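The data layer described in this paper is built around a simple, fixed record for each protein. Such a record has a labelled line for the sequence and another for the backbone structure tokens. For reference, a complete record is included directly beneath this paragraph.
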Amino acid sequence: MLQPLHDYVLLKREKEEKTTASGIILTSGKEKSKLAVVAAIGSGVKDCEYALNDKVLYKEYSGTTIKVDDEEYIVIKDEDIIAVSK
């Protein structure tokens, strides 16, 4: 598992459904969700309002996307997290 440095946060993107419950195939042109799960927090992050495994909303076009073991992650600055799902 990657450990972010400084004020960076590692988010795990949730796998998006490729078909609906009724069997309709979704196209790949669909916009990706901006919700992800906090997988790791850098040591420079202070006084954050989220914790490991919380679902958070992050700013569009922020961070660096990486793929590890068929899972998609995004590394972003702490300040780019804008909401926590409760």
Q: What stands out?
A: The chain is about 0% helix and 40% strand. The beta strands are 8-13, 35-41, 55-58, 64-68, 71-77, 81-85. The chain has one domain: 8-14+31-85. Residues 8-14+31-85 form a domain with the 10 Kd Chaperonin, Protein Cpn10; Chain O fold (CATH 2.30.33.40).
